Amino acid sequence: MATTRIDNATVWTGHRLPSGEIATTDAVLMKDDRIVALGRTAREADADEVVDASGEFVLAAFGDGHVHPMFGGLEQQFAPVRDMSSPQEIVASVGAWARAHPEAEWVRGEGFDHTLAPEGIFLAEWLDAEVPDRPVVLRATDYHTVWVNSEALRRVGYGVGVDQPHDGEIVIGEGGVPTGTLREWGAWRPVYNLLPPVPAQTQLDALSYASRSFATAGITWIQDAWVEPDMVGAWLAARAAGALDQQVDLALWADPNSWRDQLTGFEESRARIIAEGHGQVTGHTVKFFADGVIESGTSAMLEPFCDCPHSKGLPNWDPEEMKLAVAAIDALGFTAHMHAIGDFGVRMSLDAAEHTAKVNPPRDRRWVIVHTQLVDPADLDRFAELGVIANFEPYWSKFDSWQSELTEPRLGPERTHRQFQTATLADRGAVISFGSDWPVTTYAPLEGVQVAVTRQMTPEGPSWMPEERVSVDAALAAYTSGVAFQAGRSDAGYVRPGAVADLVWLAQDPRAVDPMTIGAIPVRGTWYRGRRTFGG
Hints:
This protein is of the alpha/beta class and 536 residues long.
């Protein structure tokens, strides 16, 4: 059996001592895929390989409790639209890509900045100027907003007098003409249904890219938080090809319009995953989008938006239907993973959990409300009372252009300054886990830790809602033991004998540096089940 020992390290075990400090030691011994010893016992053991950590920091590898690997990987395959500074720059990039790929029937792009146009409304005619003869479909960084050209509108049948879907918005301009901006599934799903299938090799390349990227950041477990039927086979093919350096759980997407018809398919997908995933790919989870996002006015709100006093947003589910659906998948043994941004979206999700606990037999559930952006004060204690995990994307907890340009005008100052209450929920007994929502924002956990600890944009700038800052120890725990708890993994998230040998080696101790530099700490090495997947 192969053994590896990491010596001369500050090993952050994740175990909290009675003093409140996290226990540390100086060495860890791995044998095959397990940790077998720490400290002196580890140092005195023989090993096939010895890694001198030079006094640097080692901890359990990170998990990502909410991420979209396929979408992040596919961004690399389409027209580059991320990190552009204006709609004109996006249009020019799309035009250049289209001319370089005359064989592409559709021109696609993923990840443009939806704050670049007034009120987040992008016009089809801007894209027509560069690509008038082929359909163009671009998805924004929020993955809830889509921008299309006139040819795409024509193919999907969106024109003057188009009926609005109940679960989306076709944004209409002067004369009743669709602008080219589509919000939420009901509006853009018909367009995506027209797209040609993504080739299997392209999907494999996307997942390989994502896995390599995660390894560089010290990540060894991920929750793919949006899996449609054609993606299951791609994940299993990636595992069979040896392209994965993480364990992944797939969250199968529940369609609010046809969830009853999906139940058999969920079970069939899970059976296939069990047969072919060999424990590296699992399928324990079903994903619910309770609502949309605040930036596009599609989050579900208890009170109207300030800039649209007649609108309380757009729930994706009828609340009673969501209760029935969550109870139904729970009865089949799945875990509910519920996207909820607005305070009514959060309440709907909590209500669905409460209903399920009442009508189904008791069991150890690890249901999750993800993003948890705005929680009504009356609902804060319900997370702990119901055993619902609050998953945050900590990189969002800063007052950036998304907040200043789109969110605050809709929420007003009082609600704006009640967002992402990480410390409050933790203090009230809720289990906290962290994720990235990549490719919406960075997948790097250390960048998320930095924001969770500081809630600042710049070293000189103010801290937004400083009362919601958490300690470095708490942030590291949310990315390690918190995600392991979410995953139902008793053998992960801590450095201890018997735990899975998933470790990450950092060049500096995050607790000992300027908090505004945590995100820049280099990752020296990553081990997944005792095998080094990065560094060395």
